[in-house]
Design goal:
Largest sheet: 3 strands, mixed
Structural class: alpha+beta
Helix content: 10-25%
Distance between the termini: 45 Å
Mean pLDDT: 88
Order of helices and strands: HEEEH
Strand content: 5-15%
Shape: elongated
Radius of gyration: 18 Å
Low-confidence stretches: none
CATH superfamily: Ribosomal protein S19/S15
Amino acid sequence: MSRSLKKGPYVDEKLLEKIKKLKVGNKTVIKTWARNSTISPEMVGFVFGIHNGKKHIEVFISEDMVGHKLGEFSPTKKFVKHGGKMQKEQEKKAG
């Protein structure tokens, strides 16, 4: 569910402070655990290290990402593969 328009988008205050200290285009990675924070126009051009529960994944913020949440660009689950008989047959043919 989206946040009420009356309240406005949620942006972590500590994150905004870190952005104000840096200049636009600076490639310094800003580490954050605030996955629920909405991407605002002030964040465009910076590199964020978004925590996925295990490590920080570096994401460069572009204009297309404004309005989305930071967590959308840092997946928490890693797809390995489907198992089963068909998968083994395909691996034998390919390898």
